[in-house]
Structures are given as structure tokens and as C-alpha cells.
């Protein structure tokens, strides 16, 4: 059931660096990054220090001259102490109840080819979580760097067969099976079946995010 991750693996290499944002998504990320940085009162230098992303690259992203990968966006979100969805979506509304969302209309593969992302429910500070429907193409594998302290991921396999990597091991999931883990560590997902693997990911953020 478990399979150790190969040693000396270049994690970021698991994501094709050419598979990045496009069009409207890129403009939204540019706008959101600049807005969040200014709301915090941070300079590009301070943001670079907090995120580990160079000042030059941050400036290029804000100007729409660079297309960040999923891994790079997570790195920036972690350094800024904001949710992933706050970087890729327009500002969410205050409608917290009776909200209908259709993942079929929200599905987007512009972030990474072979890795579809549907932000079913964006992060709301008063609720403390965000909900994604994610799809992995056959043989696709994605790794994510550690998130901020206190972030927890809940994975529920919907269709296909997949494996989740955390605590230095792979854990296989079939439809209906779920796992929860601390996302403060290297973690990843891969399709181990012969058809697309679809799963839900509920990401819960620590209490202080709800109070900020």
C-alpha cells in the first residue's frame, strides 16, 4: 500500500514549468498579488524575503510578464499567509450560505495541463476552509511544498484510483476512501489507475486566519 518517494527527487521538476497560467487567469493573479501585498503594506523586497521568491519574479508576476506554476503560487501564498484561492480568483462575495456552485463550469486546466482545478468554494475567513475538485490525468503526478503552519488537507477520492504522499509514504485511495493529513510537509498526489482520477480536497486553515 505504501511506496517510498524516490530520494533526491527534484520536487518542482514534477510540474512542467511551461504549464502555467494563461490569459485572464494570469491577469487575476497579477492583480491579486499586488492587492494583497499592498494591503499588508509590504514592499517587493519584504515580500521576496517572506515567500522565498525573488523580487524580480514577483515584479514580473505583478506586471503580467511571468506565468507562475501551481507550485510557485503555493509558495507565494504560504509566504503571504493567504489561501491559494485568494491568489487565483476575484474577490469572493459575502454570500456564505445557500450558494450553489457547479464544478463542471469551474473546471480549469490552465494552471497545469493534466491537472484540472475547480475551486468549488473559495476561502472565507469566517469559515476557515476552501473546497476544490481536482482531476489527475492518467500517470499524472503533482507534488506540493509544505504549506503554512496549521494547514490541514482532507482528500476524498471520487473516481479512479489515486495515491496521496505524506509522512514520507504513498497511501492509495479508491472511490469513497478518504484521508486527512498535516500539510506543513512535502505532499503530493498521483493517478495510479488507467482513467482520470477525481478527488475533493478540503483545505482547512488555522484559527488565526479566521480572525485576520
From TrEMBL:
Keywords: DNA-binding, Transcription, Transcription regulation
Limits of the HTH cro/C1-type domain: 33-87
GO-annotated cellular components: cytosol
Coiled coil regions in record: none
Gene3D superfamilies for this protein: Jelly Rolls, lambda repressor-like DNA-binding domains
A molecular function GO annotation: DNA binding
Transmembrane regions listed in the UniProt entry: none
A Pfam family annotated for this UniProt entry: HTH_3
Domain of life (superkingdom): Bacteria
Record protein name field: Helix-turn-helix domain-containing protein
Species annotation: Vibrio kanaloae
Amino acid at each position: 500500500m505504501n511506496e517510498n518517494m524516490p530520494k533526491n527527487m527534484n520536487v518542482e521538476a514534477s510540474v512542467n514549468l511551461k504549464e502555467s497560467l494563461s490569459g485572464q487567469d494570469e491577469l487575476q493573479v497579477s492583480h491579486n498579488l499586488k492587492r494583497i501585498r499592498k494591503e499588508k503594506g509590504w514592499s517587493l523586497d519584504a515580500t521576496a524575503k517572506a515567500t522565498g521568491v525573488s523580487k524580480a519574479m514577483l515584479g514580473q508576476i505583478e506586471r503580467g510578464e511571468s506565468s507562475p506554476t501551481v507550485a510557485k503560487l503555493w509558495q507565494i501564498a504560504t509566504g503571504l499567509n493567504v489561501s491559494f484561492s485568494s491568489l487565483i480568483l476575484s474577490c469572493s462575495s459575502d454570500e456564505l450560505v445557500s450558494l450553489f456552485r457547479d464544478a463542471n463550469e469551474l473546471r480549469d486546466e490552465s494552471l497545469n495541463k493534466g491537472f484540472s482545478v475547480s475551486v468549488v468554494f473559495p476561502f472565507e475567513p469566517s469559515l476557515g476552509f476552501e473546497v476544490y475538485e481536482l482531476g489527475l490525468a492518467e500517470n499524472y503526478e503533482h507534488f506540493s511544498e509544505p504549506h503554512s503552519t496549521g494547514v490541514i488537507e482532507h482528500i476524498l477520492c471520487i473516481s479512479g484510483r489515486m495515491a496521496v504522499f505524506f509522512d514520507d509514504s504513498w497511501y492509495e485511495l479508491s472511490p469513497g476512501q478518504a484521508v486527512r493529513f498535516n500539510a506543513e510537509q512535502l505532499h503530493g498526489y498521483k493517478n495510479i489507475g488507467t482513467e482520470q482520477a477525481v478527488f475533493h480536497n478540503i483545505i482547512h486553515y488555522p484559527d488565526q486566519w479566521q480572525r485576520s
